[in-house]
Design brief:
Length: about 190
């Protein structure tokens, strides 16, 4: 009877694991200045990407932090870059939980200034100076630039992953106790 219950529990755990991995994966990114005129690091999050998907669009891309030298009054921090008025190349490829390529460019143009954010191999030039970078954030028409190399992009474990791990450990412990109790009474 214990063997049958163990097999059933294992099957349920595998099914729950498969369902959890079908959900979109959240990624965090960061890049530090290499070629721009503002020192520091830009960080943020990418939402809505599925595992093992090619050239898929993110549903949200949030800039969480950037160097103080880029500080602006219009709230770029914690804003969804996908709401900017010119988004191009929102393409991400994810293989086995890893972003293997990214091509993203967004611009916010308000008639006074242009803010630009990009991830991936983009050649970016501004009206004041030109940089070649694989990731960047430029504010105030390019007078303040953080230009970096390939961004570091990593996945964030979903809460369901930790729950499944806990259920698995609990089930294994329970099975071991029952098996040990059955052996001592025999």
């Amino acid at each position: 009877m214990l063997h049958t219950k163990s097999i059933l529990s294992f099957g349920l755990l595998l099914g729950a694991t498969a369902a959890a991995h079908a959900a979109p994966i959240t990624f965090v990114f960061s890049f530090s200045n290499l070629t721009g005129n503002i020192a520091g690091t830009v960080t943020g999050r990418i939402f809505g990407l599925q595992d093992n998907g090619v050239n898929q669009a993110a549903t949200s891309l949030i800039i969480d932090s950037f160097p103080v030298g880029l500080a602006v009054a219009d709230g770029i921090n914690n804003s969804n870059v996908l709401t900017w008025n010119a988004v191009q190349g929102n393409l991400f490829t994810v293989v086995n939980g890893v972003v293997t390529s990214e091509q993203f460019l967004a611009q916010h143009v308000d008639g006074v200034r242009t803010d630009t954010f990009f991830l991936g191999a983009v050649i970016f030039t501004t009206n004041c100076c030109g940089i070649v970078a694989n990731s960047g954030l430029s504010l105030d028409n390019g007078f303040r630039i953080v230009g970096g190399a390939n961004p570091t992009i990593t996945s964030v474990p979903e809460p369901g992953t930790f729950a499944l791990l806990g259920i698995g450990v609990f089930g294994a412990t329970l099975a071991k106790r029952k098996l040990g109790a059955g052996q001592s009474t025999a």
